[in-house]
């Protein structure tokens, strides 16, 4: 298979957003609504391998209505952020981990595996091109969304013979405007997210499509997020719709559900476990039952819980509601260890704390 490695062809956007309009957008970009001037596009076909790698003007795609993705959802994506370090350099956080997960997702969805190098180069190239879109606001970053979908024009149910890989970039502010508030969770009773042998460990669009009905219902009932239990016993806490979950105990130890095919292996999850261990905390990856969560919260053995992911980094959990009613975690607000882990991770990402594992990848 031939791999068209960078340099990427560059087709500059002929009508980019004016600097004044861009500055106005960057003052309060929110999350995922403002986009930069360019995108990466690489084509794949079984016959040619990866080809036509380019950076081009961001714009609508022209798709044949019989494109396979529109029918059978053969699609995967990633999410990572570019930061501006204290010294002004642009940097990525563990892009190699996202590249590996993208390949793992591709494998599960019978798609071609984009080489890690090409993934990382594509993301770097877009950040370098659109670096003026970096929002110079508190907690600002450039959210990067690499994704790939089946583009063959064919209605047969089989792996597509053609794919499009793209990267778009979206300037974002702090996910939560005033620090991270404690969220209220609703335990999903009627729906599960993933079963063994399914696609829970892959970052494919379908996983999120199935979560929408539950999330919408939770919001309607006044909750912030949904937490899922395992599909077999409906007992073990797995993860939120878009974040992994941690439990903090009164002896200072922390626990998170183990990866086993039904949970997305979060980069933030892995980073926080490493940080916690480096601080001497006991970290276990072990199943945790919803009834135990309630009992431990009531007895005081469990003092904090938090969710984590690239978008919101670390989010304290204030309360959980299941069929037996609501229970409060700790005092219902952000916990101490949760805050400390969040600060430590953010400091590493911004180049303000030692980075012993070389997670920060500078662009210059
Ligand atoms: C289902 C799910 N779990 C966990 C995460 C957290 O993963 P990460 O820390 O790599 O962003 C995400 C977000 O990507 C997610 O969608």
Quick overview of this protein structure:
The protein has 364 residues and is an alpha+beta fold.
Cα end-to-end separation: 31 Å
Work out the radius of gyration.
21 Å
Helix vs. strand class:
alpha+beta
SSE ordering: EHEEHEEEHHEEEHHEEEEHEHEEEHE
Helix proportion: 25-40%
Instruction: Note the main sheet.
Output: 9 strands, mixed
Bound molecules: pyridoxal-5'-phosphate
Model regions low in confidence, pLDDT < 50 over at least 5 residues: 1-5
Number of strands: 18
Give the count of helical stretches. 9
Beta-strand fraction estimate = 25-35%
Coarse shape: globular
Arithmetic mean of pLDDT: 95
What does this molecule look like?
Mean pLDDT is 95; it is low at 1-5. The chain has nine helices and 18 strands. The strands form two sheets. Strands 1, 2, 3, 4, 5, 6, 7, 8 and 18 form a nine-stranded mixed beta sheet that branches. Strands 9, 10, 11, 12, 13, 14, 15, 16 and 17 form a nine-stranded mixed beta sheet that branches. It is globular. The protein starts with 8 loop residues before the first strand and ends with a strand. It has 364 residues and is α+β, with helices and mostly antiparallel strands. Helix 7 links the parallel strand 13 and strand 14. The chain has helices at residues 19-27, 69-72, 95-108, 116-129, 205-209, 212-220, 267-278, 290-299, 336-349; strands at 9-10, 38-45, 49-57, 75-77, 80-84, 90-93, 141-150, 162-172, 183-187, 225-229, 237-240, 244-249, 254-256, 283-285, 302-309, 313-322, 325-328, 360-362.
């Amino acid at each position: 298979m031939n791999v068209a490695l960078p340099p990427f062809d560059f087709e500059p956007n002929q009508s980019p957003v004016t600097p004044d309009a861009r500055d106005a957008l960057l003052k309060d970009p929110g999350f995922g609504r403002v986009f930069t001037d360019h995108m990466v596009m690489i084509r794949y076909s079984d016959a040619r391998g990866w080809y036509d790698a380019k950076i081009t003007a961001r714009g609508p795609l022209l798709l044949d209505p019989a494109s396979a993705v529109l029918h059978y959802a053969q699609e995967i994506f990633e999410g990572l952020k570019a930061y501006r370090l204290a010294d002004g350099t642009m940097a990525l956080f563990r892009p190699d981990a996202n590249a590996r997960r993208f390949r793992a997702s591709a494998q599960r969805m019978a798609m071609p595996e984009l080489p890690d190098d090409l993934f990382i180069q594509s993301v770097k190239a877009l950040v370098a091109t659109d670096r003026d879109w970096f929002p110079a606001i508190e907690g600002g970053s450039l959210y990067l969304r690499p994704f790939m979908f089946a583009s063959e024009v064919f209605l047969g149910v089989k792996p597509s013979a053609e794919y499009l890989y793209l990267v778009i970039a979206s300037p974002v502010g702090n996910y939560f405007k005033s620090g991270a508030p404690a969220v209220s969770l609703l335990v999903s009773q009627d729906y599960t997210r993933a079963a063994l042998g399914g696609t829970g460990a892959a970052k494919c669009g379908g996983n999120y499509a199935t979560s929408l009905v539950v999330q919408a219902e939770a919001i309607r009932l006044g909750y912030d997020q949904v937490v899922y239990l395992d599909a077999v016993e409906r007992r073990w806490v797995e993860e939120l719709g878009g974040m992994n979950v941690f439990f903090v105990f009164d002896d200072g130890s922390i626990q998170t559900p183990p990866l086993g095919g039904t949970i997305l292996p979060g980069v933030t999850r892995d980073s926080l476990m490493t940080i916690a261990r480096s601080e001497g905390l006991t970290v276990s990856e072990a199943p945790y039952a919803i009834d135990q969560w309630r009992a431990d919260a009531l007895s005081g053995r469990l003092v904090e819980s938090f969710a984590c992911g690239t978008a919101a980094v670390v989010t304290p959990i204030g309360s959980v509601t299941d069929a037996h009613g609501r229970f409060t975690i700790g005092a219902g607000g952000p916990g101490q260890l949760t805050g400390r882990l969040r600060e430590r991770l953010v400091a590493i990402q911004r180049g303000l704390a030692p980075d012993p594992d070389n997670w920060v990848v500078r662009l210059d």
